Amino acid sequence: MNELFSALSRTLSPYYAEMSIMLMATILVVYGDIINSHIKRILAPYHFILRVSLFVVLCAFGYGALTLYGAPFLHHIIAYLPWQYQGAGFVLAFMFIGFLAERRKYI
């Protein structure tokens, strides 16, 4: 069984940085509407131009920063697993996000 996990990790290891970005982007897709609804509620009493400007800043810089800094953080978290289980950790993380997306009726 360890050989299977090691083979999976060996195959996926060159792509861990990209997989971290994919995982972060998937999390933002699944939970972005919650972030947007909170921001919408906070910005509701303000003038239209300010609301639109802050929304653009949130989308352009906020989500960009979350992806830019969140992906290495996720990679760092996966790196705590022993090397042979890191590939399986990524696969399980994607499956868990898929499960959460299913529970939120995204699938």
TrEMBL record:
It comes from the Bacteria. Pfam families: DUF3392. Keywords: Membrane, Transmembrane, Transmembrane helix. The chain crosses the membrane at residues 15-36, 48-71, 83-101. This is DUF3392 domain-containing protein. It comes from Alteromonas naphthalenivorans.
